[in-house]
Amino acid sequence: MNYSLGNMLGGGMIGGLDPSAKAYINAVVAAGGTVSGGQKSAINTFYKTGKSDGWYSSLKRMYLPIWGSHAPNALCMTSLTSGTFVGTVTPGAGFVLSDTTTGYMDTNVGLTTLGLSLSSYHFAGLYKASSSKNNSNLFGSASGSNTNRMFISGTTYTADLSSPVLGRATGTVASGDRLGIFTFSGSASARFLKRRKTSGVTTLGTTTTTITAQPNNLNVAFLANNSSGTISNYCGEEIGAFSIGLELTDAQDTAYSLALKNLWEGTTGLTLP
């Protein structure tokens, strides 16, 4: 019985750990993190579900900053590359939090390098705790009017791709309720902005205005906006996950946000708001 339990936790459940799950777990441990048996199981399920459902290959950068220290928090789950935390960012229990004046993470990569284009893009962020900060950016890369970002100001959640007008989708959230998993996906001619909470999925906004410019390729800042090298509009919320990828269909997006919810809950012991 002890042998079976050890096999399950160390070797990866029935059929073994998914190779990508094993590589990420090993990278977290090498970076100083500790991964429990339950966390291994949740991570393994996430990878296997994504590959089975067909959305995993669309993820180009995926960060799970739950590990309590910067090195494992900065690891991408799909590429095993590392971002760089700058300034004051608090690594909490299941989240990271900027001090809103200096703290963010440089992903060290731009959107077009990752293969994103006006024809195909997807972003997601998991918000553990709310704030009242205006212009609070989950992420951003901006060059003049060519802006890629997701941010909240007041009770309006806004997502932009390539332009703050043509490639924009917006939705309203209640005051003090910047919570759940927000996703933004689309192509040149149509996009949607959704939110998943424990109670279910809500579509916050859609638009069919055609985008005419490719996204810029400045390094994407996580927890802030990179405007041609100037970092601003820092995030005020506790963030438990962030991803960048190619377009997901409505059904794929719904499946992905559920898998992300299960991953975060399974690795933190917390419950999505």
Could you write a compact summary of the structure shown?
Helix content is 23%, strand content 34%. It is α+β, with helices and mostly antiparallel strands and 273 residues long.
Core attributes:
34% strand; Jelly Rolls; 9-stranded mixed sheet; disordered N terminus; 6-stranded antiparallel sheet; alpha+beta; 273 residues; 23% helix
Plain-language structure description:
By secondary structure, the protein is α+β, with helices and mostly antiparallel strands. It has one domain (2-268): Jelly Rolls, CATH 2.60.120. The chain contains 5 helices and 17 strands. It has helices spanning 2-12, 19-30, 37-53, 70-73, 250-268; strands at residues 59-63, 84-86, 89-92, 95-98, 104-106, 121-129, 136-143, 146-153, 156-160, 168-172, 180-186, 191-197, 200-207, 221-222, 225-227, 230-232, 238-245. Strands 2, 5, 7, 8, 9, 10, 14, 15 and 16 form a 9-stranded mixed sheet that branches. Strands 1-17-6-11-12-13 form a 6-stranded antiparallel sheet. A hairpin with a 7-residue loop joins strand 9 and strand 10. Helix 1 (2-12) packs across helix 3 (37-53) and helix 3 (37-53) packs antiparallel against helix 5 (250-268). The chain is globular.
How far the N terminus sits from the C terminus, by CA atoms, comes to 37 Å
Which spans of ≥5 residues are poorly predicted at pLDDT below 50?
1-14
C-alpha-based Rg, rounded: 18 Å
- The dominant shape is globular
The SSE order reads: HHHEHEEEEEEEEEEEEEEEEH
CATH level-1 class: Mainly Beta
SS elements, strand count: 17
- Please summarize the sheet with the most strands: 9 strands, mixed
Q: Determine the structural class based on helices, strands and strand pairing.
A: alpha+beta
Taking all residues together, what is the mean pLDDT?
A: 94
- What is the CATH-assigned architecture? Sandwich
Please report which band the strand proportion falls in: under 5%, 5-15%, 15-25%, 25-35%, 35-45% or over 45%.
25-35%
Q: Into how many domains do the coordinates divide?
A: 1
Question: Which fold name corresponds to the CATH topology?
Answer: Jelly Rolls
Percent in helix: 10-25%
How many helix segments? 5
